[in-house]
Amino acid sequence: MKKLSIKLGAIFFLCILGLESFMFFFLHSALVESRIQEELNALQARGNSHRAILENHFTPDTIAHVALMETESTTDVAVTDADLQILGSSSKNKQLIENVKLPSNEIPQGGLIIENDWETEPFISTVSSLENEGEIIGYVFMFQDTETVHSLIKRLNQHFVLAGFLTVALTLFIIALLSKAITKPLIKMKDATFQISQGNYSISLPETGKDELGDLAKSIESLAHDLTFLTQERNDFLASISHELRTPITYIKGYTEIILKRDLSEVEKQNYLSIILEETNRLNDLIKQLFDLAKMDQNSFLIEKTEVNLKEILEKVEVKLAPAFKEREMTLHITCQKDFFLHADPIRMEQIFLNLLDNSMKYSGAGGITNVSVELKKSQLFVTIRDTGNGIPEEDLPHIFNRFYRVDKSRTRLLGGAGLGLSIVKELVNKHNGTITVKSQIQEGTEFQMMFRGAWSDENDLTGGR
Ligand SMILES: Nc1ncnc2c1ncn2[C@@H]1O[C@H](COP(=O)(O)OP(=O)(O)OP(=O)(O)O)[C@@H](O)[C@H]1O
Ligand SMILES: [Mg+2]
């Protein structure tokens, strides 16, 4: 992880250094250019002011005076007549005298810069023409030694180097702080994920704000939370399975031993054998349900959807269950007047109804009434199963779709339930993109309502679900 902060820091640094160098280069060239321009303008202005005096008094005295004035400053002057014969100069420098020559282009009223190459030439220079009544009577040449310009630029460069060093140092410092601030939470998250991979899910990460890192930390925490929940659920599930499998096997083993060891009458033998058969059936059902659930978990559970008529499915279910209801002195009313169609797996739809109605039958006393009704609202098919049975306590309602959840464990055991029916129903309804809800009042009854999308009936909407 340390490598990441170095990598991040180096990338930041290179980017910022590049940007800064670019900006410094432009700033430096602009400053140098404007300084040189200022020097040239000042030189020209000085030449022009000499010209103003000399135009009025073009006498040897005034020329000598002007030359004298320039000997005291960093600039030099050379005054010539119209033929470039030097009439007076503040310096006897040979190089300076050599540079007293006119430019090829015409000299305007405000004067002209003759030499601005401060880098290679010994002087920068300007010229202003002296006129009298429209005629040129001479020239004022102004010179500035480029040594002074060089030392000016040198000082500017020194400032730039200092500023550059300071900026780089400050940049490095800020980058070190920033990359540490970014990588620190990442290192913490890496440690946390390592802990998770080692099976320790009780991790907590510090708040890092509402940015992407904060989101990542929250995701890791919720992952750890989900894993805790899943591990707990898996352990509970395994404990429930082994318990559910062990109970019928204990019965089967016990009764088989009795039959083998004891000298029993034919009636007793029959009795015990029928218990063994019942437990074997229960075991068979349980294993089948578990197998279905395992397949659903792996998404290898096949739902073969075709166009089905719900009315036909309900009629089949009624034929299967009506005798059992009657035997227990209960009533099953299925009301489905129209043909309602939807895309579904007919076998699984039947399984949904069988599971729900089996519950209504198991958890109602004699005289109980179970009503099944169907309603189509804007291509949504609502199927309601309402019974007048025992009802489910409010605190159990959120859990009844969980695997192996039974409200009254001892009683339901007598009724043969393992607590898997509703979890299978929920999975099957989900696989059909439907929803299932439950309402219940203790001692009054329970109502399950399912909703399936994309349904239609022949009468009012021929195209609804197709
Ligand atoms: N219609 C109902 N009336 C009252 N209680 C119900 C009803 N349906 C379900 N329950 C309660 O919800 C629990 C879970 O139901 P579920 O169908 O999942 O399991 P089961 O019926 O006990 O066993 P299985 O369906 O696996 O044979 C039941 O044990 C029962 O207590
Ligand atoms: Mg059930």
TrEMBL record:
Residues passing through the membrane, by range: 6-27, 160-179
Keyword annotations: ATP-binding, Cell membrane, Kinase, Membrane, Nucleotide-binding, Phosphoprotein, Transferase, Transmembrane, Transmembrane helix, Two-component regulatory system
Residue ranges annotated for the Histidine kinase domain, each copy included: 240-456
Top EC class, one word: transferase
Membrane topology qualifier: Multi-pass membrane protein
Molecular functions per Gene Ontology: ATP binding
Subcellular localization: Cell membrane
Catalyses which reaction(s): ATP + protein L-histidine = ADP + protein N-phospho-L-histidine
SMART domains listed in its UniProt record: HAMP, HATPase_c, HisKA
Keyword Cell membrane: yes
One Pfam family, short name: HAMP
Protein name as catalogued: histidine kinase
Organism of this sequence: Robertmurraya beringensis
